[in-house]
Design brief:
The model has no long low-confidence stretch (mean pLDDT about 90). This protein has twelve helices and two strands. Helix content is about 80%, strand content about 0%. The longest helix is centred in the N-terminal third of the chain and has 44 residues. Helix 5 crosses helix 6. With about 290 residues, it is mainly alpha-helical. A two-stranded antiparallel ribbon has the order 1-2.
Amino acid sequence: MKQKKQLLETAVHGVFLLLGLITVGCVLLITVYLVLSGLPAIREIGIKEFLLGDTWASTAAEPQFGILPFILTSVYGTAGAILLGVPVGFLTAVYLAKMASAGVKNAVSAVVSLMAGIPSVVYGLVGMMVLVPAIRRIFHVPDGASLLAAIIVLAIMILPSIINVSITALDAVPKEYEDGSLALGATPVETYFRVSVPAAKSGIAAAVVLGVGRAIGEAMAVMMVSGNAPNMPSLFQSVRFLTTAVASEMSYSSGLQQQALLSIALVLFLFIMLINAALNFFLKRRREE
């Protein structure tokens, strides 16, 4: 009997190891493919002209392949979505995990889970039909398809990731921590924000990382509400993100244009890797302190 258990444990361990190696192998294959496909265009165009050029005219008689507008738009759009989405998602998670009644928590959690399952094209469609005209009407601009519309849509789309993971982290905090704080005279709100939240900070930080990844990698919804024009970023102007730059032109591209789009994919891949590495570094440093 003991031998059978050991064999079963060994088999399960081997399956998990195999799945882990497959995952790592897929990431390595993607990395190698993007590097081999993206470097030729960067060498031909020039890394300075490619990364710091402010004009993208891939189909012109004399094509230009500057992606600085795409990089800045992605940075500003992601930062704006995080600034809007993280406080709302975090406070919602604290309320649902610690303050809401069981009925309210179950109802709102079901709605949040439903939001997580809505396809991005639906968010884009609703944004295009409702949000874009509203921005045009409220701010009296010629076209509501803009960076602001993309930020608002991305902020809404990252809420389910932040809320669900943060609730899980807050629910995992031992009740003894809160009981001890309340016994010392702290109010429930003080206990939640000064005891429960610090105890769950690693999980909440993981939720923010997931939100950042969702915001950076989104393409379809952003394409539908941002105007998809290769302009330098401005709040009420049509813009194009790194993701939408690849998605909008890849279907008809060829030659150097296609290679340049693969180079954009490489830049986006490295961009996401650097952000994740930086966030993980700071989180690890905070844990050690």
